[in-house]
Amino acid sequence: MPTDFFISDHHFGHKNMIDFESRPFSNVEEMTSEMIAAWNSVVGNEDKVFHLGDFSFLNQEKTKEIVSSLNGYKFLILGNHDRGRTRSWWLDAGFHEVSEHPIIYKHFFFLSHEPMYMNKHMPYVNVHGHIHGQKYEGKSYFNVCVEHWAYKPVTFEQIRDSVVVSEEQA
Predict the structure, then answer these.
(1) What is the DSSP letter of 36?
(2) I need a surface site. Which of 67, 156, 162, 166 has the fewest CB within 10 A?
């Protein structure tokens, strides 16, 4: 049975990200190959991956090479660094689906690039990226940035179980 995965903020091709986030790579080429290997170590061809933005700083040809080397059905929610390119640019780069806006997943999970304001009366859990190594406190937020997950996409079950969602809500 296929699995749904979530991840964000690979920043493929962004050399400065190695220093900004103390990533354990000596150069951008090593970062690219290690992140592709990490993705493919958990994602199969039948699985679906929701990438929550800031995928690549590379040109379309190089981005397409990376996207095509990653397992699974790939759904991109545009991040702040992705929005300079059109939705069709990302589809042409190989993503199966692209959204310019956050989406609701399983009636309870709010998927967005940037963390969204969630007050105690909102019934959603915000699955997000953007803040890299930082983490928001509380059960209303779940950060899927690569830095938190050893560069591997995280399963829906891992997210659900960590926020202790009741069966009526999931």
Answers:
(1) H
(2) 166
